[in-house]
Write a structure and sequence with these properties.
Blueprint (H helix, E strand, L loop, with lengths): L3 H12 L4 H20 L8 E2 L10 E9 L3 E10 L4 E10 L9 H16 L7 E7 L3 E5 L2 E4 L16 H11 L5 E7 L1 H16 L8 E5 L3 E6 L5 E3 L14 H9 L9 H6 L1 H16 L20 H9 L6 H9 L6 H33 L7 E6 L1 H5 L3 H18 L2 E5 L3 H15 L2
Parallel strand pairs: 2-5, 5-8, 9-12, 12-13
Antiparallel strand pairs: 1-11, 2-3, 3-4, 6-7, 9-10, 10-11
Helix pairs in contact: 2-11, 3-4, 5-14, 8-9, 8-11, 11-13
Bound molecules: alpha-D-glucopyranose.
Alpha-D-glucopyranose (GLC) binds next to helix 5 and strand 10.
């Protein structure tokens, strides 16, 4: 006999599984928003120019990179050998606290500059070019001028909007007396992923077509795409907002309740990216607990927003122990005593939310292809990186199956999703090297 808990879970599963038709419709709206963004007639996709050229594959030499777009950042020196290889020679990782996320920008840039200064050392007088991967929305005016737009992923630096992040970095370096670094290029992480894959592919075969899309599925999600004559554009696809007819009640509540980013902003990201998936699951759990006995004893421990980390979903999915005893331990660590039935229900919820994320990502990719190659006549390379894509068991397979559902296996075979690990840092280095050759 079906218990009320089973019936509720089944209803949740249905609501969290948009039909293929609904995803097709979403991908069409995505294409329409691309057209609006490119025409400059508003809409939720900004289609920001990037001023980055596709690498030729023979770029070489030593450059610096800086990767900042979240809690952790990296500064380093990398060497490109002109044959598709790029290697980190020295690097440093730095970390920000929750307070830093609301500080004045100078505070954050001082931390970044300190790391850059330590890596750069004092042994050289010539200025090394630095590629800065700034993984937040920015309106570029040149390859080395990026005007910050509102931050995402829970960040809100005081009065950052409208300021040039390259100048903020250069000023912070000057405050420390660093004279051997020239911030010569700035790019989004999606652009870095795309450029890295093109560099690698063309390093092996000069005449290979470049990568078409850079996709990040991590704390946030976003795409950059090569729009032919219009150049590589940063879509800021996390802000795509024609998703409300795919919402379940907790998506609407999350959009309304999260202060940063504001309601109505980053709606696609709020359904698909790592910063939010754990929170969606936490909300589903609390909602079920209010309507049936399952999860009832969990509510005190899971009472605070963002109190359940998305990384837990990967660990739970990977748990092969009998009775999900590793999950039991993990839950105990956050103050939750659980039954086997509850652990299984939690795993089901996690799978549903992550599978939905992957299918949404597939539909958004298709939306971009509807613009750049509507019939999917050619094959395409998509450079993908990010903690959710790389960390959740077989997230790749979920996206792939999403694409197969949408376009059929034959055309899905023409879309090559290539995981490019560490693409933000390495891609920033490639972009610095490309910029040097073009000046
Ligand atoms: C957020 C940022 C975007 C970035 C993405 C992935 O969506 O706004 O710029 O590319 O996260 O890090």
């Amino acid at each position: 006999m079906t218990t009320p808990a089973d019936a509720l879970l089944a209803a949740t599963a249905t609501a969290l599984t948009p039909s293929t038709g609904a995803l097709q419709a979403m991908s069409e709206r995505f294409r329409d928003e691309i057209a609006r963004g490119l025409a400059g007639s508003g809409g939720s996709l900004k289609m920001l120019p990037t001023f980055v050229r596709q690498p030729r594959g023979d770029e070489r030499g030593q450059v610096m990179f800086l990767d900042w777009g979240g809690t952790y950042g990296r500064a380093g020196i990398a060497a490109l050998s002109g044959d598709g290889r790029v290697q980190v020679e020295r690097e440093e990782v730095f970390e920000f606290s929750d307070e830093d996320k609301m500080a004045p920008p100078e505070h954050v840039f001082d931390t970044i500059a300190a790391a850059v200064a330590r890596v750069a050392g004092r042994d050289r007088v010539t200025r090394r070019p630095l590629g800065f991967a700034y993984s937040f929305p920015a309106r570029l005016e040149r390859i080395d001028r990026a005007i910050a737009l509102s931050l995402t992923k829970g960040w809100r630096l005081q009065a950052l909007d409208g300021r040039d992040v390259v100048e903020l970095l250069a000023d912070a370096l000057a405050r420390r007396g660093v004279r051997n670094v020239a911030v010569s290029a700035v790019a989004n992480d999606t652009v870095a992923a795309l450029a890295l894959l093109t560099y690698r592919v063309r390093g092996r075969d000069r005449h290979a077509p470049p990568a078409d899309i850079g996709l990040i599925v991590g704390t946030g999600t976003n795409q950059a795409a090569d729009m032919g004559g219009l150049g590589i554009r940063n879509l800021e696809s996390g802000n795509f907002d024609a998703v409300t007819d795919l919402w379940v009640p907790c998506d609407a509540a999350l959009d309304r309740d999260v202060g940063e980013p504001a309601p109505g902003v980053q709606r696609f990201e709020k359904m698909a990216a790592g910063h939010y998936l754990g929170e969606i699951v936490r909300r589903l759990v609390t909602d079920l607990a209010s309507r049936c006995p399952v999860f009832r004893s969990w509510t005190a421990a899971l009472g605070s927003p963002f109190g359940f980390d998305t990384a837990n979903l990967s660990r739970i999915e990977a748990d092969r122990s009998p009775g999900l005893s590793e999950t039991e331990r993990l839950l105990r660590g956050i103050g939750v005593e659980s039954s086997t039935e509850e652990r299984q229900a939690l795993r089901t919820l996690g799978r549903l939310v992550v599978t939905r994320s992957a299918r949404l990502i597939a539909a958004a990719l298709l939306g971009t292809f509807r613009h750049i190659d509507p019939g999917l006549a050619s094959s395409h390379r998509i450079a993908v990186d990010g903690s959710l894509y790389g960390g959740y068991p077989d997230y790749h397979g979920l996206v792939r199956r999403g694409l197969e559902d949408l376009v059929g296996p034959e055309r899905a075979d023409r879309l090559h999703l290539e995981f490019v690990k560490e693409s933000t840092a390495l891609g920033a280095a490639v972009i610095a090297a490309v910029a040097r050759q073009n000046t």
